[in-house]
Amino acid sequence: MIILKSREEIEKIKVASRYAIEILRYLGQFIKEGLKTIELERLCEEKIRRIGRVEPAFKGYNGYPYCLCVSVNDEVVHGMPGERILRDSDIVSLDFGTRYDGFCGDTAVTYGVGKIQKRTERLLAVTESALYKGIDEAKEGNRLHDISNAIQSHAEEAGFSVVREFVGHGIGRSLHEEPQIPNYGEKGTGIRLKTGMVLAIEPMVNMGKSDVVIRQNGWTAATKDGSLSAHFEHTVAITEKGTEILSVL
Ligand code: MF3
Ligand code: CO
Ligand code: CO
Q1: In angstroms, how far is CA 206 from the centroid of its own chain?
Q2: Is the shortest distance between the CB of 81 and ligand 1 below 6 Å?
Q3: Does the beta carbon of 62 lie inside 6 Å of ligand 1?
Q4: Residue 177: which of 53, 57, 19 has the closest Cα?
Q5: Domain ranges for the chain
Q6: What pLDDT is recorded for position 205?
Q7: Is the dihedral of CA 140, 21, 74, 67 positive or negative?
Q8: How far away, in angstroms, is 77 Cα from ligand 2 center?
């Protein structure tokens, strides 16, 4: 069942989403060669505690033990912060969600560490623009897979591939609600999009093949061929006045 949101509810999701992206931007300042990924978790926890108005939405979700997901290089999503040290030319995807007055916001960004290769820069740029292509299709009257198809076409035209095992999603009182939003699909198919829907759209794009494996920790997804993977995510609302990206400052 898809739960439509009122204006008041959307405002709460917006507060959560804005704090989530504010914290990801804050963490971005610390990303450089030599940083241990667990430091990002510490900085994140400290920052959210100092803000005081929002709670981390991931910690404890299905037993996930951290506030933040930190996925480095070939890791696609659900990387766990730890003792790994960032190196020049790495890429690091940060995914973070918060809860405000019962409502969640969810957003992700991929950062480069130091100087990254041209093709890596292209992977990040294409993944981010795929997200915006998807958002452009998230409007009243369109079909769900119009979003999916826009993301897939953009990524594949650039010679990259989209991950099939993980999807975007509705969001509200729960971090993950219906509908699931695949990052591939046929235009003109899927449910009709309506005012009041709030969606987390999140392309995961690989430089090589689309296949992923799950690491020993039971959480972290990584590319099977070891190629780099990027991830960008926004929480957006379909409203009478059009589509609003909630996870922006
Ligand atoms: N943030 C992820 C998503 O974008 C989900 C994280 S689940 C967690 O949907 F358990 F790792 F928190
Ligand atoms: Co997320
Ligand atoms: Co999400």
Answers
A1: 14
A2: no
A3: yes
A4: 57
A5: 7-245
A6: 99
A7: negative
A8: 9
> What residue's CA is closest to ligand 1, atom 7?
58
Q: What is the CATH number of domain 7-245?
A: 3.90.230.10
Which are the contacts of 187, defined by CB distance < 8 A and separation ≥ 6? 143, 145, 146, 149
Question: Are the beta carbons of 17 and 107 closer than 8 angstroms?
Answer: yes
Asked if residues 171 and 200 have their Cβ atoms less than 8 Å apart, the reply is yes
Would the pTM count as exceeding 0.85? yes
- Angle among Cα 55, 62, 49 to the nearest 5 degrees reads 15
Mean pLDDT of the chain: 98
pLDDT in tens, 209-220: 999 999 999 999
Please give the C-alpha separations between residue 55 and each of 81, 83, 132, 157, 167, in angstroms, as whole numbers. 18, 25, 27, 39, 23
- Intervals of the chain under pLDDT 50: none
In the numeric block, the tokens 């409007």 are attached to: 139
Q: Which residues pair with 100 in a beta bridge?
A: 103
174 lines ligand 1 (CB under 6 A): no
Beta partners for 32?
A: none
| Crossing angle (nearest 10°) for helices 118-137 and 144-157 | 160
For ligand 3, the distance from its centroid to the CA atom of residue 181, given in whole angstroms, is 10
- φ/ψ of 106, rounded to 5, equals -145, 130
Give the list of residues 6+ apart from residue 61 with CB closer than 8 angstroms, or none. Answer: 175
